[in-house]
Amino acid sequence: MKHGAGGKWYMNARNYSNELADSIQAREYLTEQWKNFEQVYIRKVMGISSIDLGYKLQMPIIGKVLRWQVEKMIHSDAKGRNPTRADGHFGQVIPLEDAKAILGNLAAEPIIENYCMCRWMQRGIKEACCINFGNLSGVIEKLPRFIPKNNVYKLDREEAIKRLEMHNRKGYVASVWFQPVPYINAICSCENPECGGLRLRNDFGLHTIYKAEYVVQIDAEACNGCALCVAKCQFGALRFIPSLKRVMVDAEKCWGCGVCRHMCRQDALKIVPREAVPAARGRF
Questions:
Q1: I want to staple 228 with a disulfide (CB 3.0 to 4.6 A). Which of 102, 195, 221, 263 is the partner?
Q2: Three-state SS for 203?
Q3: Segment 14-39 mean pLDDT
Q4: C-alpha angle with apex 131: 114 to 39, nearest 5 degrees?
Q5: Residues near 243 by Cβ (< 8 Å), separated by ≥ 6?
Q6: CA 222 → CA 32, 144, 195, 217, 264, distances in Å?
Q7: CA–CA gap between residue 49 and residue 69 (Å, rounded)
């Protein structure tokens, strides 16, 4: 199932299987990708370094060609794709419910929690909030710089879900990742703009990460206008309307992560399928 077809491709059990990983030589890909992970942010596209990429993407003709080439790399399922360049590596935001279902039933063991490399490269902060599984866990365990010190990093399914819930309550957005497509082996809990995928999407319009299959809706009768949820939204999708004394949702801006729900004491926020909301339908 292709992304955007109105279904949850990340709920396909085969995408997590060891058989799939073996068939696409995922371990070899992941070993090269993570050995050289820091280079992903300085990779060259058509001879142009990432430092100049933003400027070049704004140019009418060169920008169009560059964008086509970068999108082709991001979504590549071709044989011989470049792991150092992270070809075939993209993700999608998911709400807590779907993330828990993945960790509880679909994710291939072993499961580990390691340092978020986006935070490390963006802000120089090492925080263990990325949960990896299957082939990726075995690869990361051999690379000490990713393994948390003085922390238990090997998790069973119940422990992994508890860690995920803790990050979600903190305001971190959960996202599921191909490495490489169609093999899924990670759920990251990160923030905007620290998340590399979100930065590339928001700054350059590149589809390194997609919005969730949901959007948030507000029960107008239940909302008391406290506006606590507004500060929790990282995407500017919630706005307090003084004249109405309640919060409104901009469905076009909503990523469907559902993190805002943790702030609502009235249980006025809920997630609904994106396809059921005309303003958000098909807009991933």
A1: 263
A2: helix
A3: 93
A4: 55
A5: none
A6: 51, 49, 33, 12, 10
A7: 13
